[in-house]
Design a protein that fits this description.
The protein is α/β, with parallel strands linked by helices and about 400 residues long. The chain has two domains: about 210 residues, 3-Layer(aba) Sandwich (Rossmann fold), CATH 3.40.50; about 180 residues, Glycogen Phosphorylase B (Rossmann fold, 3-Layer(aba) Sandwich). It is about 45% helix and about 15% strand. The protein contains 15 helices and 13 strands. Helix 2 crosses helix 15. The two termini are about 30 Å apart.
Length: about 400
């Protein structure tokens, strides 16, 4: 563990139960999962039920304080005993280092008065926490929070790894997923967990995305209609499908433009090449590694938001686009249909089909009253159901079922 918790901090935290967020990477990185955790931490800090704490299970070391907060980040290597690449070595390392990890985890839990261990984007390192609870005098509730591709990793596991996942899912206290479709995937893997699986949709900070008229500035060269998408440059996000669809849209709306915003990923170079191959360079711009607090400015310049993913959990960016009152076109994958109802709160099309995607985009760009209608519908739904306070209150309701935690 990096750093030491001082006595003043310990006394402060001991005044109320602690909520330990466990992440496999630094909270300083960009990405949807980190934004979810930061937002939940903000809700905890605004309330009086729990004191937030953070544990990063990466072998790398980062800052010991979370920027913008007074929260201390603990760094401790906690990994899975199972590895497809190094089966014997990973198991040996897990066993050999277990005593030290046990002592350090016990110290964190005791000093921070941890009542809830909440693993986001979990791996089989949750076994360490289950063993700790069994062997120590503490009995924190263990909550797994799945976000999308982590469920794919679990469902796609095999052999010993699959067996261990089924055991883990049965032994943790609660399993939170961000869409009903993810819940069904996990329940197919282990049907006996249905009573502990709860869907809690991601929230949105409405104030951050609703623009006042005087806040909107034109950062583009002309008044062309703008299509925007936000997502990591990986194959799952389907940027290639969107670029092909955009080339078809240009046949009917020659002055529109496409803005791609997202975290740098393995497909970035390929997407650049595709744009050049299709001679779309002047009409397409790419912005990578944009801080989350700058995403709203891209929404404010656009007329439509498009999500062309091949797979999703419940994409937070859809709720954010709705908060910005953007009409939405999305592929019908994962949990997207739980927010976007075709013709009511947006347009929903099959994935992997540039023609259908292009037709839906063209319809909304050429029918402004229809676009405004569905944008208002989606905005009102998000406003009434998908704020971060809604998500946090559902976590509290879940934890209130425990006889050991009073909230």
């Amino acid at each position: 563990m990096r750093g030491k918790v001082n006595s003043d901090e310990t006394e402060t935290r001991a005044a109320k139960p602690g909520w330990l967020f466990v992440l496999p990477w630094s909270l300083e990185e960009t990405g949807g999962v980190n934004h979810v955790v930061r937002s939940l931490i903000g809700c905890l800090q605004d309330s009086s039920e729990f004191e937030p704490a953070i544990l990063i299970t990466s072998h790398a070391r980062g800052t010991s304080r979370v920027s913008g907060t007074r929260i201390k980040a603990h760094w401790l290597d906690v990994w899975s005993p199972v590895s497809a690449q190094h089966r014997l070595r990973s198991l040996f390392s897990f066993v050999r280092r277990w005593p030290r990890r046990f002592r350090e985890l016990t110290k964190i839990i005791r000093m921070a008065n941890i009542a809830v261990i909440n693993l986001h984007f979990p791996s089989l390192n949750v076994l360490m926490f289950l063993m700790l609870r069994t062997l120590s005098r503490s009995s924190p509730k263990i909550v797994l929070s799945f976000h999308g591709s982590d469920v794919k990793n679990v469902v796609g596991s095999a052999g010993l790894e699959r067996y261990l996942w089924r055991q883990v899912l049965r032994k943790v206290d609660y399993i939170v997923v961000v869409s009903e479709s993810l819940a069904r995937d996990l329940e197919e893997l282990e049907p006996r967990i249905s009573e502990k699986v709860v869907t809690i949709y991601n929230g949105v900070n409405l104030e951050a995305f609703v623009a006042e008229n005087n806040q909107v500035t034109n950062r583009f060269a002309d008044d062309a209609q703008t299509i925007v998408t936000v997502g990591t440059f990986s194959r799952v996000k389907g940027h290639d499908v969107l670029v092909h669809a955009f080339s078809l849209v240009l046949d009917k709306i020659p002055h529109c433009r496409l803005v791609l915003v997202g975290k740098r990923g393995p497909e970035l170079g390929r997407i650049r090449d595709l744009i050049e191959t299709l001679n779309l360079g002047p009409r397409v711009s790419i912005h990578h590694d944009v801080p989350h607090d700058q995403i709203a400015s891209f929404f404010h310049q656009a007329q439509i938001f498009v999500l062309s993913s091949r797979r999703e959990g419940f994409p937070l960016v859809l709720a954010e686009a709705a908060a910005a009152r953007l009409p939405i076109v999305s592929t019908d994958v994962g949990g997207t249909g739980e927010l976007i109802k075709d013709g009511i709160t947006g347009r929903l099309v099959k994935s992997e089909n540039p023609v259908l995607l292009a037709n839906a985009i063209t319809d909304l760009l050429t029918l402004p009253k229809e676009a405004e209608r569905i944008a208002v519908n989606c905005h009102e739904y998000v406003k009434s159901n998908l704020t971060w306070n809604h998500a946090y209150q559902k976590y509290l309701k879940l934890l209130s079922h425990s006889t050991h935690i009073s909230v």
